[in-house]
Amino acid sequence: MTLKVREISIFCFAWSANWFSLIASFCLNPSFSKSSVVPFDLNNPNSIYATGGFPFKVYDYPLPPMGPGPEQSEIPFLMNFIFWLLVTILFFLLLKKQADNKKIMAVSITAAVLSTVIGLVYLVLKFD
What we know:
Number of strands: 3
Strand order of the largest sheet: 1-2-3
Oligomer: single chain
Shape: elongated
Number of helices: 3
Radius of gyration: 17 Å
Largest sheet: 3 strands, antiparallel
């Protein structure tokens, strides 16, 4: 089974949108106080420095550089990817024939690679 240009483009654009939404949704927690830092605990909202993820919350960020790694949120990350995959499929259905262009596939692959690299660097900076 070979993937067509359209399927590759859809997957890559959805992956890029997932990373972009994660980075752009970073939101500081108003109840967090740097003057009274408590150990990071997911059950204690006062210990969470910030949150991130759209449309589903993916990460509870600790005050850098302390805290558990991003493995706490693999399922919400995949749920967000599925959401963006569905949005991208709907978008490509509207495009019809233009979506089978190899230039669009090249741009989508480049965007997916760059967003992955930027996203991984972002996670390293937020959790280490």
